[in-house]
Amino acid sequence: MNKKQRTIIATLRNYPSFPIDQILLEETIKGATGELSQAQAKRKTSIGEFYKVQLRFMRWKVWVVQLLIVLGMALLLYNSVQERNGNIQLIMLTSIAAPLLVIAGIQTMTQSISFNMQEIELSTYHRLEKLTLVRMSLLGMADLIGLTLLGGLLSAWTETGILDLVLYLLVPFNLTCFGCLWLLNRVRTRNCGYYCLLYCGLVVTGQMFLTCNPSLGLFESSAKVKWLVLLLLTTLGVVRQVNGLRKTCCSHETASSIQM
Asked: How many CB atoms lie within 10 A of CB 66?
């Protein structure tokens, strides 16, 4: 410590300090805390408003593609009914819509990684975990609405039971979602969207193979127990992967805050 620094320290020590009023200090702290709480309350967004904001954020082309998939599949079902094809073939044909609907929303889920936007999303007011889960739930609800419409048409045009429709439509949907979420949890590169598309393409190819080979007996009444087991396993798998994606988002947020 040089002489100039010692002089400054001595001057500060000798500087007279005014007495502190403890009551006024507590009132100041309380007032500042109240002002901060009010400012944060004004910035808070309700769940409904946040969903509306994210709905406007998502590109309209995603909804158009999903609508076209539902309409196109409904048209194919109508033509198949007119040609009096069997119920099994109709069910197998309708189940292909599940991975196609997931494909329509893949870009929305991977665009922050594909276009290097993750740092921007990490710096926003809302948490990355919340953003990801809300977007995923919006896409999932849209997919389920589309599958419900197709299932309703299939039930009205054929004698297929509700349980059969739930099994044959949700199992491919859950299987596709599980694979894509697994990839999103483990492949955090710009090509993750292409990997998800490749996986969805494999699921569609497998379903087309089953459609062309109904003699395998996978859609017979004796195989319902296997479908129930698959539905349970794929549902548990989706839940686990969603929880894993949530943890992945939290870890990225933690790493970002440490670097800052």
From this structure: 22
